Amino acid sequence: MVQLFGVTKRYSHFQLQPVDLTLAPGMVMGLIGPNGAGKSTVMRIMMGLVNPDSGSARVLGHSMSSNVSLVKQEIGYFSDDLRLYNGESLGWHMDLVRSMYPTWDPEYAQELLTKFGLLDRQRIKGLSHGQRVKAMLLLIFARRPKLLILDEPTNGLDPVAKQEVLAELMQVMNQEDRSIIYSSHQTQDVEQISDWLTFIDRGRVIASDNRDDFLECWRRIKLRAPDSWKLPAIPGLQQDSQLQNFRVMTIDRYDETIAKRLVESGAELEAVEPMTLEEIFVGVVSRGRQAEAR
Amino acid sequence: MNSNVVRILFLKDLYLSRHFLFGYLAGAMASAILTCLPYKPVSDIGFLLMITVTIATGIHMIGLLMLGDGIEHTRAFVLSMPVSVLDYSVSKIAVVLCTFLIPWSLMLGVAMMGSYLLPYAKPGVVVVLPAIFCFMLSCFTIQLVSAVVTDSIGWTIVVMVAGNVGLNLFLMNFNSDPAIVAAAKSDTVTWPALAIQVLAIEWLVIIGSVVLAFYLQTRKRDLV
């Protein structure tokens, strides 16, 4: 569905390191990274809005360097910095988009208008931020794209609007075999809808894996150990903090044998806790930055 | 290039600029009619208004249609649709030229017809008007190039100011040339060599600038 091979992009203040990324049909990929990590640049390259300096981008089987307008017929793109025409109504925008897309579904557009509580005669400048996001998503969903590229769609939304947007997004995912790439720094949203996660930091993809594998492999271990205790070799130990004889460790390759090994080494295990995606995200970013510093 | 997409984008921009375009058309019509009146101070005011309307239309339409998408962040919305850089560039340059040329042609046409047909007017003025109007058109196309290159309203205004200074110098020199003065006062239309040379240079600049604007716009790697 989407394949990026060694894609790079240099700006005066930022450089995207060679990015290799594959999004399979039907997959929902969450692209997670801090602000300025390069998420939007990657998505703009996928969308053909930005040309990479090197590498290649293939989307829906076509090269983005030569078939951009053909491919864009099948893509729905949302970005936080994308704006509609303030002086015009939502209905005018719907007519404009409909004229460009033979796949426009007027009945679904009407359904979304009702669902999102929007009126087609409303001018864009009179809409709240949440309503603007919903209007934009309506214009995207009603074209029934095969691929959705959503760059921080829930940014700045209140909790109710965010849930409405996410609920509709999940419904869209269930309707057809549609692929979605969804970026955010709000890990709860990404966790809710993604089945594949890619972490990006400082222009570099630092990890990319199945969401469940991430959640399964990362653990926080709390234990007590005597002063004389020596930490055994543990694969994937990311962090180890100590207060007197109480220790907290984070591990990114957890399995049952690790707990066993710790107990056998003389430690008293207090808890093995799963970590939230946000904690994993922070852990992955710290690990990447430490590796970069070395 | 997808001509249907270009047509949709062209009509969209024409629609977005409709209120201003009607305003400039009204101003163009009023100033052209004033220019044709038989009272010297009034016709002089009309002529000054024509120049003002032309300059204002040019800078406004470039700002609204060429640079507006970048300033208002609507360019990403347009380019998120099945639009190539070529489609976008052709539609933008075409619509900016069109919105400028509609009032420009109206003023030139009315002023030329008035000079030629009205009993109290001197038909020889017909020789002077195209050179002045084409000078303003060439200034506009250079502004278009600067807008494409810099994507900045500030730099485009700097070019506009330079163009206005150039227009004043041009008017002073061109209108004081003996051959032009004689042709303008004549009861028949005779084209002096200088007027033809000036027109040729102006059209060279106009065509060159439009081609350059188009070339530079389509060569841009990233529009967002």
What do these coordinates show?
The complex is a heterodimer of chains A (about 290) and B (about 220). Chain A is an alpha/beta fold. Helix content of chain A is about 35%, strand content about 30%. Chain A has two domains: about 1-210, P-loop containing nucleotide triphosphate hydrolases (Rossmann fold), CATH 3.40.50; about 220-275, no CATH class. In chain A, the strands form three sheets. Chain A has a six-stranded mixed beta sheet with strand order 6-7-8-3-9-10, sandwiched between helices. Chain A has a four-stranded antiparallel beta sheet with strand order 2-1-4-5, with helices on one face. A four-stranded antiparallel beta sheet of chain A has the order 12-13-11-14. In chain A, a hairpin with a 2-residue loop joins strand 4 and strand 5. In chain A, helix 4 runs antiparallel to helix 5 and helix 5 runs parallel beside helix 6. The mean pLDDT of chain B is about 90. Chain B has one domain (about 5-220). The radius of gyration of chain B is 19 Å and the shape is elongated. With about 220 residues, chain B is mainly alpha-helical. The two termini of chain B are about 20 Å apart. Chain B has nine helices and no strands. Chain B has helices spanning about 5-15, 20-35, 40-70, 75-80, 85-115, 130-150, 155-175, 180-185, 195-220. The chains are: A alpha/beta (about 290), B mainly alpha (about 220). Chains A and B meet through helix 2, strand 6 and helix 3 of A and helix 1 and helix 4 of B.
In whole angstroms, the N-to-C terminal distance of chain B is 20 Å
Number of contiguous helices of chain B? 9
The CA-CA distance between the termini of chain A, in Å, is 36 Å
Please summarize the sheet with the most strands of chain B: none
Assembly type: heterodimer
* Structural class by secondary-structure content of chain A: alpha/beta
Q: What is the arithmetic mean of pLDDT of chain B?
A: 90
Count of discrete domains of chain B: 1
Strand arrangement in the largest pleated sheet of chain A: 6-7-8-3-9-10
The CATH top-level class label of the largest domain in chain A = Alpha Beta
Low-pLDDT parts of chain A are: none
Share in β-strands of chain A: 25-35%
CATH evolutionary superfamily of the largest domain in chain A:
P-loop containing nucleotide triphosphate hydrolases
